[in-house]
Amino acid sequence: FYRRVGNSSTVPHIYPNGTEVDDFEIVQWNFAQSWYFSVQAGLSIGFGLLSESEDASKLYSCFHILAGSSAISGALSMFCSLALVRHRHFQTRSEQRLAKASAALHADGYRGFTLPQIRELMLMHPQYTNAIIRKLRPEPAAAQEAIDEFGAAAPGRRKALASGLLKEACQRLDEFKHDSVKVEDLVAIDEVHASFYRRALRALRRHRSSVQITTAFFVML
């Protein structure tokens, strides 16, 4: 529309020496100039050096700006809602996993897991075993050795290793000293002492919506 309506503009022209400035008249906007003005008007970020000369173009710009503002507001609202939903879903994934485990083990999620139930949980979801091992053994080499041993063990041997880890945890970790562990304590241990890969993946999931919003913003530009 801006190209066909016949807008003309006078813009400053700077010579290569950088000291002389002269006015340059654009008799009719070309496609690039029309597109440039259309995008700036739609995003409501100003009109640069181009100014409209036709009344019909000025009238159309009012509706163009309103439509652009509505589209931007709708897109931001959609992305913000999506970010909140995904962030809330990410925050509850561990809780949901533990809730399913509680139901399978007939555990009371409010009172926490008893030691036998924690052992079964460690066998069902080795990621919690790995997190407990890393909390018990701060040295990466020692922790990885214990994790590899647990992962390679047969089912019977694995159960014995889990029992040994729980016994050590009850002696050394405050979360286990009451012979039961609350869900939030298990989640905290898993969050802090998870493997680097899991923590990186969680960080990517946590900020995925922000990356999408930023990408969409630059695409709109």
Structural overview:
It is a single chain. The protein is mainly α and 221 residues long. It has a domain at 92-220. It is 68% helix and 7% strand. The strands form two sheets. It has a two-stranded antiparallel sheet with strand order 1-2. A two-stranded antiparallel ribbon has the order 3-4. Strand 1 (9-14) and strand 2 (21-26) form a beta hairpin. Helix 3 (115-124) packs across helix 4 and helix 3 crosses helix 6. Keywords: Membrane, Transmembrane, Transmembrane helix. The chain crosses the membrane at residues 63-85.
Fraction of residues in β-strands: 5-15%
Helix content: 55-70%
Largest sheet: 2 strands, antiparallel
Query: What strand line-up does the widest sheet have?
Result: 1-2
Structural class: mainly alpha
Q: How do the SSEs run, as a string of H and E? A: EEHHEHHHHEHHH
**Rg value:** 31 Å
What is the helix tally? 9
**What general form does the structure show?**
elongated
Extract low-pLDDT stretches: none
Keywords: Membrane, Transmembrane, Transmembrane helix
